Structures are given as C-alpha cells and as structure tokens.
Amino acid sequence: MRLENKVVIITGAASGIGKQTALLFAQEGAKVVVADLNEKGGNEIVEEIGKAGGDAFFSKLDVSNREQSKQVVREALERFGKIDVLINNAGINQDALVSKMTEEQWDKVITIDLKGPFNCIQAVVDAMTEHGTGEIINVSSIVGLYGNIGQTNYAAAKAGLIGMTKTLAKELGKKGIRVNAVAPGFIATPMTAGVPEKILEMMKEKTPLKRLGQPDDIAYALLYLASDEANFVNGAVLSVDGGLLI
Ligand code: NAP
Q1: What 3-state DSSP class applies to 31?
Q2: Which of 63, 133, 228, 240 has the smallest C-beta neighbourhood within 10 Å, fewest atoms?
Q3: CATH number, domain at 21?
Q4: For the whole model, what pTM was predicted?
Q5: pLDDT at residue 144 above 90?
Q6: Cβ of residue 73 lying under 6 Å from some atom of ligand 1
Q7: Would you say 215 and 19 are in contact if contact means Cβ atoms under 8 Å apart?
C-alpha cells in the first residue's frame, strides 16, 4: 500500500475529486480526515471507507473559517497523533464576465479558493514542522495557468494558489515539508455538471485524449504526490488535463 498509516486531511472530500481521493487514499492505507461543509455527503464517505475496512472520520469545515481550520487539525491530532498530508481541494466557482461580476462573487471565490488553503496550511504547519515531515498539495486548475473567459475571480484564486505553492515549497522545504499543486483540466464532477453540453463537447474535441477527465484521474495524481515515491518533488505544478492546452 502506497500510503500505509499516513494521516491525510482532505478538504472538500464529500464530493467529486475530493471524494474519489478520500476513497483511493483509504484503499492505499491512509487514515483519512474527510473535511467538508457537506455533513451528510462527508459522513457517507466515512461510512463507505469504514465498510471497506479503512479508517476515517468526518470533520465539518468551512475552509474560509480560520477557527474551524484549526479545529480540524486539533481533531486529527487527537484521533491519529500526527498529520502527514494536507490536500487543499475544497473550491467553488461563481462565474461572470468581468463587467458583470459582483463584489460578492469576487470576495466569495477568493475567500474560499485562495484564503481557504492559506488557513488550512497555517493550521497544519506547526504539527508538520514538529513531525519533521509533511506533504501539502493544492488543487489549482488549468484556469490558473491559462485563464478562462468569465472566471476572473476563479483564475486569480487558482493562479494565486500556484504562487503560494512555489513560495511555500521554498519556505517549508528545509523543514521537510514538500508543497506541490495539481492543475486539473475539465473533470466530470458536480462542479462541471452545470456546464452546457455544447461547451463540454468542445472541450473534449480540443483535448488530444478526446474525453473529459474523471475524478480518478486527479486522485491518482494526488496519490503520487502524497506518496514517498514523490520524495524529491517540490514546488511542482502537475497538469492533469489530457493535453488540453499543449
Ligand atoms: P465539487 O464536486 O463541487 O466538490 C467540492 C466540495 O467542496 C463539495 O463537497 C463542497 O461542498 C465543498 N466545499 C465548498 N465550499 C467549501 C468550503 N468553504 N469549505 C469546505 N468545503 C467546501 O468540486 P470538484 O469538481 O470536485 O472540485 C474540487 C477542486 O478541484 C476544486 O478546488 C476545484 O476548483 C478544482 N478543479 C475542478 C475542476 C473540474 O473540472 N471539476 C477543474 C479544475 C480544478 P458543497 O457541495 O456543500 O458546496
């Protein structure tokens, strides 16, 4: 097993990419903290992991709330005694052309998608430093690398997350903490469920692999970065997009 006895906090783990990652990581031997706003969905994942013989618990978390971020870390330490991996996956989008984007839409996306990971990293960093090792993986987006019409707020947050990843890879490397990011392309999850079929078809057509990504595609990339196999990978941004933008 590739994550045997590693303790992993996954934010936004009740749905989509986070859910698939929680299930895969548990299968690979990790003890998983399913941290999400969605209590019902989160508890269902915990139950599924338990039935398969894994170890997990749910912790209610709004990543934009600094106190709740600290609370999740406290609970993880109480229950499992250490934290090896933090996956900053929770995220939202609220799209509008720039002339129509409201201040609320801007603030909400920046607060959840950019400040949220910062809150969780700050909450976990002392425990990882004390432990002498740790992996932090930020779920960015190809939109953070290349931009996208109607997503000024989301692109700014996801590009900011890449800047944060590279900065912290430098700052925390000497403490034994690796910091990396993945940049998914279009992935079939509830987040993209509302995208018109015409756009999704266009995306498939533009992708050399001629399909949308599945949550599993990202979960396996996260598994690699979280595992000891990636022990010399630090500050990387791994695109997982079927070659959409080459
Ligand atoms: P998803 O299916 O919508 O799942 C996101 C999860 O995060 C949901 O369970 C959601 O709960 C939770 N969440 C939302 N706001 C939260 C908050 N403030 N605190 C804690 N949890 C919160 O989305 P996904 O497609 O799996 O996306 C996961 C990550 O991948 C996001 O960061 C997204 O930006 C990124 N990404 C996705 C794609 C894609 O094509 N799907 C592409 C590139 C990057 P509720 O359901 O209760 O809101």
Answers
A1: strand
A2: 228
A3: 3.40.50.720
A4: 0.99
A5: yes
A6: no
A7: yes
pLDDT at 157 over 90: yes
What is the spatial distance between Cα 178 and Cα 188, in angstroms, rounded to a whole number? 28
Q: Is 246 inside a domain boundary?
A: no
Spatial separation of the C-alpha atoms in residues 128 and 132, rounded to whole Å: 6
| 179 vs 236: CA distance, rounded Å | 8
Is residue 244 situated within a structural domain?
A: no
How remote is the CA of residue 113 from the centroid of ligand 1, in Å?
A: 9
Residue span of the structural domain in which 198 resides: 7-237
Residue 160 Cβ contacting ligand 1 at under 6 Å: no
- The answer to the question of residue 245 being in a domain is no
Q: Which ranges constitute the DSSP H helices of the chain?
A: 16-27, 39-51, 66-80, 103-110, 116-131, 142-146, 152-173, 197-206, 215-226
Nearest CA to ligand 1 atom 4: 15
Q: How many residues does the chain have?
A: 246
pLDDT of residue 245: 85
Would you call 154 a catalytic residue per the annotation? yes
CA 26 to ligand 1 center in whole angstroms: 19
Beta bridge pairs of residue 151: 96
Provide the number of structural domains found in the chain. 1
What is the Cα 40 distance to its own chain's centre?
Answer: 20
Distance from Cα 119 to the centre of ligand 1, integer Å: 16
User: What is the crossing angle of helices 152-173 and 116-131, to 10°?
Assistant: 10
Residue-wise pLDDT tens digits, 121-138: 999 999 999 999 999 999
